[in-house]
Amino acid sequence: MQPFTALSAAEQVAEHLRAELLRGSFSGTMPGVNPLVAELGVNHKTVKAALRMLEDEGLLVNQGRGVQRRIALPEDHAPPALRVAVLAFDLVARSERFMVELCHLLEESGHIPFFPDKTLEDLGRNVNRVARYVKKTEADAWVVCAGSREVLEWFVRQETPAFALFGVRAGLPIAGTAPDKVQPFAEVTRRLIKLGHRRISFLSRREIRLPKPALSISAFLDELETAGVVTGEFNLPDWEENPEGFKRCLDSLFEHTPPTALILDEPFLFNAGFHYLAQCGLRVPQDVSLICTDGSPEFSWCQPSVAHIRWDYRPVVRRIQRWANNVARGKDDRRQSLTKAKFVEGGTMGPVRGD
User: Fold this and answer.
1) CB of 80 within 8 A of CB of 24?
2) What are phi and psi of 350, to 5 degrees?
């Protein structure tokens, strides 16, 4: 039998603090004695003794009375691997090319990315359900894809670091990134108006139109109003986000005074919209112009070419990789960034047909 050695209270505290230092829980300097006493629930003498042990090991450098100790981790110390949960909006999003690349980059950095069993759509995008699910899922960090304002506000209040990939994150103290579509949305709308379109409907995800339209949606509405078009639900309809709800929405739009142009959010909706118009005997773009708010590798096979908004996913996934590395090192990274997006006019956009 191996001899049993009981650790003193100071040694137990030193062991705990050593593990936290190597895990990256502290960055730059060590908290003072008083905060550690309050957090650990031990006396001042025990904390001071534990800190001296860590100084003797070289993990901390005493910088004099009244100055916090400097953290001095070994040069060959690698930041710990994070379990990064990627909370996708739906199952379709999990198979997107940028999602695959994101997981590869996180793995290259030594992290462990994974998709939880549920998506935001599975959870009904309900804040309470999301909260319960996240709390019972073991993860060191979360990447939240296309989160609503309410969902992202909840993540901001949690101790576990979170990153907002897309979503309504403007003004929130949370790290995030997305393509900057404000100017491209304005360009799309101006181009449609120049081609004679006045009846333009935009079918978008609920999160970017309610309770308040996102900046990109506002750019679309602003351009219509500048052209003298009175905007309303026809331009930004409310619809139930499933195949049946999508069809019901289009049936309603085309029942009386049909739109001459449709802007559809994401490639799978574009494909569904194209299929719907074909079933109705409507030609693209002769009868209805069709624009997608994102690009897709599949579009390179399409004739006519697809009018869409193109953006490079690589800066987006690299930003998340850097954020995860910063979190692993104990850095509080809440910077938000935008990547450039460009409107690509394709053959699915044309002038309004004269009656």
Assistant:
1) yes
2) -150, 175
What is d(CA 227, CA 241) in angstroms, rounded to the nearest whole number? 30
Cis peptide before 237 (omega within 30 of 0): no
Task: Please tell me the pTM assigned to this model.
Answer: 0.76
* Domain assignment of residue 90, yes or no: yes
Query: Where is average pLDDT lowest: 62-66, 70-74, 276-280, 281-285?
Result: 70-74
CB of 162 closer than 8 Å to CB of 197: no
Of 185, 188, 190, 144, residue with least CA distance to 167: 144
> Does residue 353 belong to any structural domain of this protein?
no
Q: Cβ distance 216 to 265 under 8 Å?
A: no
Q: Give yes or no for a contact between 217 and 223, defined as CB atoms under 8 angstroms apart.
A: no
Non-local CB neighbours of 122 within 8 Å, separated by 6+ positions:
90
CATH of the domain at 49: 1.10.10.10
DSSP string covering 126-168, please? -HHHHHHHHHTS--SEEEEES--HHHHHHHHTSSS-EEEESSS
